[in-house]
Amino acid sequence: MRLNPLLKSVQTPPITEVKSWLAGRSFTPEKPLIDLCQAVPSYPPAESLTRHLRAVMADPSTYRYSPDEGLPEIRATLCDWYQRHYQSAPQAEQVCLTIGASQAFWLAMLCLCQPGDELIIQLPAYFDHLMALQSYGLTPVCAPFDPENNGLPDLSTIERLITRKTRALLLVTPSNPTGAVIPPSQITALFELARAHDILLILDETYNSFVGSPPHSLFDRHDWQRHFVQVASFGKTFALTGLRCGALIGATELIEQALKIQDSMVVCQSLPAQLALQFGCQHLDHWIADNTQKMNQRHDAFVSCFAQAGSQFDLIASGSFFAWIKHPWQHLSGRQAARRLLDEANLICLPGEAFGAGLEAYLRLAFGNIATDQIPQAVERLTS
């Protein structure tokens, strides 16, 4: 069988790889496995939402197709949610509902880029983005990681990387894997940089609901559609990761072209996912706020425990669901360090090199997976 040769250089999905290490292992009740590998909310969906889904699943129409871009009333409801959370919003015709943020990202790449184009990314970068760019023959141009700046983008560094082949700046805020949030003023400056060079600013804002304030004001600009594209996810927002609720948000002409790929790829986001999204946007603002506070408390507890433990690991950056730490074993790669933690501490996490070259000294911990009262035990495993 002849396979796409570009895939040979693409890493195995890191979470799949790390979880494969568990095969044949068992863990005792006295020292159970602590999973800091995949970012999944530790809490369930709102009870009112699950009741609503049980009711709509009894309706035969729930199992039908919707328009490719999603039902218009649900896209309008989502825009109302944006107005409340961003203080500005896209229009319904600027939204295409997708099978998670990953499919929204692929739609954006296929619509906006051609093989050979360059995209500037900030290290550490979300591994799915790196994998997708390499699979499609796009060139990631990496802004180096600066631990003194929590890995946030530096405008002068970004600008020096722009060439005639640059198609877009591709950034994640809050960052996966560091949790660091790009401030609204810096997002505005990045938009202005993109506009000045006639390129795009593409923001993956999967964790936007955990910022606690409007992430930026770009939707308030009259010209946002010309240089800004958002990749969005609501699986973390409403604890519905398995339903795959995402969206591509951009200019109307982008959405019109994206539907050509959407129809041939998935047709539409499933109706159960759309109905769950609609209910969440209409009824769960207070639930989101409570969970944002819960996650902030969890983050603060992690930082406090880590500081008190006197660990050999260094906490470099943290926020939302994640902590980005430097491991103490200079002779080990991130993969080797992660395996050592599994072998010795019954704890799994992701190796730094999954998020870009040259990051073997680091590990990503997804503390959003565990309850706050489990954090002291997780930190103890790192220090023992």
Give structural notes.
The protein has 2 domains: 5-44 and 287-383, Aspartate Aminotransferase, domain 1, CATH 3.90.1150.10; 47-284, Aspartate Aminotransferase, domain 2. It has 384 residues and is α/β, with parallel strands linked by helices. The termini are far apart. It has a 7-stranded mixed sheet, sandwiched between helices. The chain has a 4-stranded antiparallel sheet with strand order 9-10-13-12. It contains 13 helices and 13 strands.
What proportion strand?
15-25%
Question: Can you identify the CATH class of the largest domain?
Answer: Alpha Beta
Cα radius of gyration in angstroms: 21 Å
Give the fraction of residues assigned to helices. 25-40%
Structural class call reads alpha/beta
The profile of the biggest β sheet is: 7 strands, mixed
Q: Within the CATH hierarchy, at the fold level, what is the topology of the largest domain?
A: Aspartate Aminotransferase, domain 2
Describe the global form: globular
CATH architecture of the largest domain: 3-Layer(aba) Sandwich
DSSP summary: helix tally: 13
List SSEs in N-to-C order.
Answer: HEHHEHEHEHEHEHEEHHHEEHEEEH
The number of strands is 13
How many structurally independent domains?
Answer: 2
Write down the overall mean pLDDT: 95
Termini separation comes to: 48 Å
